[in-house]
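Supplementary Methods S3. Complex input for the uridine-diphosphate-N-acetylglucosamine-bound model.
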Amino acid sequence: MPVDIVILAAGQGTRMKSELPKVLQPLAGRPLLEHVLERSADLGAEAVHVVYGYGGHQVPQALADWPVNWILQEQQLGTGHAVTQALPGIADDSLVLVLYGDVPLISEATLTELLGKADSGSLALLSVMLADPTGYGRIIRNDQGQVRKIVEQKEANETELTVCEVNTGILACPARHLRNWLEKLGNDNSQGEYYLTDVIAMAVADRFPVDVLIAAGEIEVMGVNDKRQLAELESANRAEKAADLMRDGVTLLDPARVDVRGKLSCGRDVVIDINAIFEGDVELGDGVSIGPNVVIRNSKLAAGCTVHANTVIEDAEIGESCELGPFARVRPGTVLEASAKLGNFVEVKKSRVGKGSKINHFSYIGDTEIGERVNVGAGTITCNYDGANKFKTVIEDDVFIGSGVELVAPLTLEKGATIGAGSTICKSAPANELTLARSRQTTVKGWKSPRKKARE
Ligand code: UD1
Ligand code: CA
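Predicted complex, serialized as structure tokens:
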């Protein structure tokens, strides 16, 4: 059967004590809801319907790139009311899968199994066993172990309160049946809310099969209500990503101190030191070594690269056997060809650095094409910006630039040119010659330094 996913995301999340709607709170650098959308996309659903409310258009705006049917629930009258808002857009012969926007780590395997149960004609619930079930809806079974109903914490009697099997809120059900039951739903309970969970007793009354899948672990069904739970999921997610990396053969000096906030793919014999952060899509080739406190975002590093401590790399492509840092900053649009080297306090932006070229100390290189085997001396700066426009610098193969040079773009340093230290170069320099631009050194003979007058 085709599947329609309904994600409940209208709640405020009072306990977050934040202006940001709960489902936009970040986990691994991305909104909670985005994690659920990503999971939904993996399931190949017909459509994904997100019921939003608190925070108004902030939620759809923040996730505008996702193909979602956004449904505004103006008043949060309960989970049953929320699902009802999405039903008009769902065909009778579809399966409805209800997810929560604040349960971000639900696994694809669990959802596939749950959908399988619903597909064979049942109302399929996902439950979990909790040592402390306080606050959750309890799964009430008869003596034969068949589910009879779900009772919310506030409605439960003493015996029901001792039940440790709780409702995760996630369920799957043929749309036709769900629609029938939801139409009959009332709000005559202690909270005056339309409880989605009341459909279970209705299904039982109709002799419609109710099937329960008990989740293997707590983490994947854990919802986020406050910052403590958010941090708990953050570290669970971190541990899971670290375990994936180690299973793929990556050496992590401390698996508790590596953050993968996106997709990281690694070749063989990759070593990652502590406090490394990977964001977006990052690829590390064979034998890459990442030092401590390194941040890499949307970049590719080819085999054999070494990244030393405290280096930041963003939207860049790094060729084989390059060496970066410590304290290098590689900004978007940078390409380093094989065996290039960026040393400490070197910033490179939107530039190409050719094979074997070196920029070893304290430099800013922007909008520049650097050829092969170039040596850029300490403190070299490309003056690429006049306050309004950006200009290009071209440095051809085998150029040698002395220390403390300013290159005022646009200009070209032709093949094999040497630039004397301390020069401010404003015009192109010819091939294979020494060019310098600095004032001559003079010494004033017999000069006396001023002295303070003695006080009277
Ligand atoms: C719900 C379940 C409970 C389950 C628990 C698991 C009901 C009646 N109870 O309780 O059995 O153990 O989740 O966490 O379903 N939401 C809306 N619109 C609304 C109300 C809620 O979008 O009108 C969203 C919330 O943003 C949240 C989710 O639905 O993501 C659950 O709502 P919440 O109020 O937290 O339900 P609980 O009382 O915790
Ligand atoms: Ca909740």
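The chain has a mean pLDDT of 97. Residues 223, 225 surround calcium ion (ligand 2) (CB under 6 Å).
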